[in-house]
Design brief:
The chain is an alpha/beta fold. About 50% of the residues lie in helices and about 15% in strands. The protein has helices at about 5-15, 20-30, 30-40, 50, 55-65, 70-75, 95-110, 135-150, 170-185, 195-205, 210-220, 235-250, 265-270, 280-295, 305-310, and strands at about 80-85, 90-95, 110-115, 160-165, 190-195, 220-225, 255-260, 295-300. The strands form two sheets. A six-stranded parallel beta sheet has the order 3-5-6-7-4-8. It has a two-stranded antiparallel sheet with strand order 1-2.
């Protein structure tokens, strides 16, 4: 990124109008934007302001017309504009429409954190979501949640969604599209593929990074836990990772969504059984938190991943 202040200092220090002053200023004053500005502010322009502001007017014209050989300002994503200050004309700089749009798009992307999920989810769009009969209730619920989160009321807790259904029905895509819509409203969302996260957090034990990773997930303004129940269930991940995250989010009333191939009743059975033992009480405790945080919605339909693969064949 170029330094705008350094460029302007150099620009003003190296101007040599000399005998070409009259010709250069004539060109600048004939510029349509300059003429329009002078006409609009004619009553506010102090006597002698044109002469005193000549360098600013010509700077505006030169940069706008791309006459400066280095093109530092435009490369930095700025454009010049004229303004009045105590009866004199000054030139200032603002981001171009393109630069402002790029900055806005970057800010939106940064509000969506994806942990071990495909990057193409960043392009997921609710407008492109196929509203088939088996997915209609899910898309409608996502739209309601979007409205609740973007227009908070006196009751700020917005209960999330627990999307269950067969493989490839579009659960993760819908959650990615929701996250992208929330980012447009200035809301940050974290999507985490839980089976992969569980594996990585086990590996983080030796590095002493378990708690920092849990903190980042549990405190997300909006959290989407993808594919819960798809990994092998162990008591440590269940109790010390998932249990801690869910307890924090329930206490803080933070919107949490889930996707799973298991219905809630099936997930409870899954959480109860570990390689070591069966613990129905701990499973019920976890499910109590999940049911508090999210409403269960069943999705049906064809496997869209297979349909896409067949189209590409």
């Amino acid at each position: 990124m170029y330094s705008l202040s350094e460029y302007l200092t150099k620009f003003l220090a190296t101007q040599h109008l000399g005998h070409d002053y009259q010709q250069l200023m004539t060109q600048a004053l004939q510029d349509p934007e300059v003429k329009a500005f002078l006409s609009h502010h004619q009553e506010a322009i102090a006597p002698g302001a044109i002469e005193k502001s000549a360098s600013s007017i010509y700077e505006f014209y030169q940069v706008k017309a791309g006459l400066n050989p280095e093109e530092v300002v435009s490369q930095a994503g700025y454009e010049p504009y004229l303004l009045m200050n105590n009866g004199l004309i000054e030139v200032a700089y603002r981001p171009t429409v393109q630069a402002a749009a790029a900055h806005s798009a970057q800010a939106r992307r940064q509000r969506v954190t994806m942990v071990n999920l495909p990057q193409d989810l960043r392009a997921a769009d609710l407008a492109d979501y196929r509203q088939t009969a088996g997915r209609k209730s899910a898309i409608n619920a996502a739209m309601v949640l979007l409205r609740q989160l973007s227009q908070p009321s006196d009751h700020p807790f917005a209960r999330g969604l627990y999307l269950t259904g067969p493989f490839g029905v579009g659960k993760t895509y819908l959650m990615g599209a929701l996250a992208n819509e929330l980012s447009k409203e200035g809301l940050a969302t974290t999507l985490v593929h839980f089976p992969t996260f569980a594996t990585q957090i086990k590996q983080a034990i030796s590095a002493g990074q378990v708690w920092p990773q849990i903190q980042k997930i549990q405190s997300a303004p909006v959290l989407i836990i993808d594919d819960i129940g798809a990994d092998s269930n162990g008591p440590w991940v269940r109790d010390e990772v998932l249990g801690v995250i869910l307890q924090y989010r329930m206490q803080e009333r933070l919107t949490t969504c889930f996707t799973s191939n298991l219905a809630m009743a099936e997930l409870e059975t899954f959480l109860a059984d570990t390689r070591q033992t069966t613990d129905l009480l701990k499973a019920k405790r976890l499910m109590e938190r999940i049911r508090f945080l999210a409403a269960e919605i069943t999705m049906q339909g064809p496997n869209l991943r297979q349909a896409t693969a067949q189209t590409l064949d």
